[in-house]
Specification:
6 helices, 62% helix, flat, single chain, alpha+beta, 5 strands
Length: 245
């Protein structure tokens, strides 16, 4: 009887673990749909699309276990759900720094999304030079017998920030977290250079936008003047017909 009871418990645990991980997958699907809608809207309506790339990932059970052990949290599903808030993660790469804040505002304004944490590592970079905007969101998902609020971490950064972070991660992985001091200093210097590049590209982008806006205004004035000239003969004809009607 005990053996049968153990099997039932194991089956119930397996179902609960499966539902637990599926909830995060569904939350990722929900967020990816929202981001794709914004991306399509920009493509169809606006002049350019600020979203360059979107990637998403789920932490593996092994990775979750290691983080729980490292942080000293209670090893239970409710504890994991509350304390490990980056099980589901999305990374959005934008063209310019201003796009990061525009996009984060659009995401935050979604009626069914709650921003739980907002960490701006662009205005306040990490000591190693890392820059990115991090949002922890609560996303509702609807299952067959319940509604759940699931945490999703969203990281938004520019191409330069993403390039730096990717290489920095590879270097730390290669040196097993023990990077020589000189290389740490050079990495931080590279992060500053990446930030300067972002600011320069932002300035160029704004200058081009201003020139384009000026050209559009000139084109509009020229079109209006041309329209007035085209209407002038009609006014003469109207006056002639009135006099001789």
């Amino acid at each position: 009887m005990d053996h049968a009871f153990d099997i039932k418990e194991l089956k119930a645990l397996k179902v609960e673990l499966t539902r637990f991980m599926m909830a995060y997958k569904f939350a990722l699907d929900e967020m990816n749909t929202k981001i794709n809608i914004l991306k399509d809207e920009f493509n169809y309506i606006h002049e350019y699309n600020p979203i360059e790339h979107v990637t998403s990932r789920l932490k593996s059970p092994e990775s979750i276990y290691k983080k729980v052990y490292r942080k000293g949290y209670e090893f239970s599903l409710p504890s994991i759900k509350e304390n490990i808030r980056d099980i589901a993660g999305i990374r959005i790469t934008c063209s310019f720094m201003s796009d990061i804040y525009k996009l984060s505002n659009m995401i935050a304004k979604q009626k069914d999304i709650t921003v739980v944490e907002y960490k701006d590592y662009i205005q306040n970079p990490k000591p190693n030079g890392y820059q990115s905007l991090h949002l922890i969101l609560q996303v509702p998902i609807f299952m067959s017998d319940r509604e759940e609020l699931i945490y999703v971490e969203v990281q938004i950064r520019t191409i330069a920030m993403d390039f730096w972070a990717s290489l920095e991660h590879k270097i730390y992985y290669k040196y097993n977290q023990e990077v020589p001091k000189q290389m740490v200093a050079e990495l931080k210097e590279a992060a500053v250079m990446a930030s300067q590049l972002d600011k320069k590209m932002e300035r160029l982008h704004n200058e081009i936008a201003e020139i384009k806006q000026g050209d559009e205004n000139d084109d509009g004035l020229f079109l209006l003047q041309g329209l007035r000239k085209d209407l002038f003969p009609l006014k003469q004809l109207e006056s002639f017909l009135t006099k001789n009607g």
